[in-house]
From TrEMBL:
<keyword id="KW-0067">ATP-binding</keyword>
<dbReference type="Pfam" id="PF02661">
    <property type="entry name" value="Fic"/>
</dbReference>
<keyword id="KW-0808">Transferase</keyword>
<dbReference type="InterPro" id="IPR036597">
    <property type="entry name" value="Fido-like_dom_sf"/>
</dbReference>
<dbReference type="GO" id="GO:0070733">
    <property type="term" value="F:AMPylase activity"/>
</dbReference>
<dbReference type="GO" id="GO:0005524">
    <property type="term" value="F:ATP binding"/>
</dbReference>
<feature type="domain" description="Fido">
    <location>
        <begin position="54"/>
        <end position="207"/>
    </location>
</feature>
<keyword id="KW-0547">Nucleotide-binding</keyword>
<keyword id="KW-0548">Nucleotidyltransferase</keyword>
<dbReference type="InterPro" id="IPR003812">
    <property type="entry name" value="Fido"/>
</dbReference>
<feature type="region of interest" description="Disordered">
    <location>
        <begin position="286"/>
        <end position="305"/>
    </location>
</feature>
<dbReference type="GO" id="GO:0051302">
    <property type="term" value="P:regulation of cell division"/>
</dbReference>
<protein>
    <recommendedName>
        <fullName>protein adenylyltransferase</fullName>
        <ecNumber>2.7.7.108</ecNumber>
    </recommendedName>
</protein>
Length: 305
């Protein structure tokens, strides 16, 4: 099957500018080089097109700059003309990853143009409440991921695009504490027509108070388990919902518990008094306190209230 895919060599490894023949080695090199280029986009030293007009060319520019050191075809969608190792190649029609079938190659560019035309009609999601923005932005990413415009590198390209979209709309996204496992699951759900888990994710990472507590949980687990935290479905509590399970961690800034297969991060104000790690607890979540409210709580504790 590898020989049927023009993007890969006979050994199934993606053809690359580095001459790497091992998939694991290529993955590490790609991650390192793409991370350097991603910083250039964020600090403004990348070409202006990488911070463009929220259209298909903008998306192409982000992908091209991010992966230019690794792939000859960086910036080429699955619907564009394809050149590999100096030779014109036929784009594959089908793309299937982890049992998910994405948009057919010949339809990719038209789907992108349609998606971005709708986004332009919505004024780039400006002038919306945080709640409305989070829901509509989640749907944009769900639809964009289903198109899956590039052979590889879609996740990093799409996140950078969405981060820029959120910045200009006034509702910054905090992707740092979103684990690979959670991103994989919500993307799969959306591909099956269920956007609820993606919408919940965006509701969390557009809310600075929830995102702050979620980040604490991520940092705590990362300190304990390293990169294995990426295999965890990590989420924060939602006000009004009830959670039951074993308490893993508790301090003055957050708690972590297992609940119905998820790893849940919440604020300790919701824990039963006297609860300790290892115990099974039941929690009904309240709204996360703001940073100012947390400072007031800390002052109260320091004064013995």
């Amino acid at each position: 099957m590898a020989g049927l895919d023009p993007y890969t060599g006979d050994n199934g490894v993606m053809k690359n500018r580095l001459g790497i023949q091992d998939a694991g080695e290529l993955s590490q090199a790609e991650r390192k080089l793409a991370s350097i280029r991603a910083v250039e986009i964020k600090d403004g030293s990348a070409p202006a097109a990488t911070r463009g007009h929220f259209d298909a060319d903008h998306l192409r520019a982000i992908h091209q700059h991010t992966f230019q050191d690794v792939y000859e075809w960086a910036g080429t969608t699955r619907g564009d003309d394809l050149t590999l190792e100096g030779q014109r190649e036929q784009q594959p029609v089908q793309l299937i990853k982890a049992q998910t079938s994405f948009e057919e190659g010949p339809k990719v560019n038209a789907k992108l143009d349609s998606l971005f035309a709708r986004l332009a009609e919505q004024d780039g999601l400006r002038s919306l409440s945080r709640e409305d923005f989070s829901r509509q932005a989640a749907d944009v990413l769900s639809d964009l991921n289903q198109v899956h415009p590039f052979r590889e590198g879609n996740g990093r390209t799409q996140r950078e695009f969405m981060i820029q979209l959120a910045e200009q709309a006034g509702h910054p996204l905090q992707f740092e504490a979103v684990t690979q496992q959670r991103m994989t699951v919500v993307s799969f759900d959306a591909a099956q027509g269920d956007k609820d888990s993606m919408r919940r994710l965006f509701d969390e990472i557009t809310d600075p108070d929830r995102a702050r507590v979620l980040q604490r949980g991520f940092d705590s687990l990362h300190g304990r388990y390293g990169e294995q935290v990426q295999a965890v479905y990590l989420t924060s509590t939602t006000a009004g919902e009830t959670y039951a399970g074993q308490l893993q961690h508790k301090d003055r800034q957050h708690f972590i518990m297992n609940s119905t297969g998820d790893t849940v991060v919440g604020h300790p104000q919701d824990l039963p008094k006297g609860s300790s790690p290892g115990e099974v607890v039941k929690v009904t979540a309240t709204p996360m306190p703001s940073a100012a409210e947390e400072r007031q709580m800390q002052r109260g504790r320091s004064m013995g209230y």
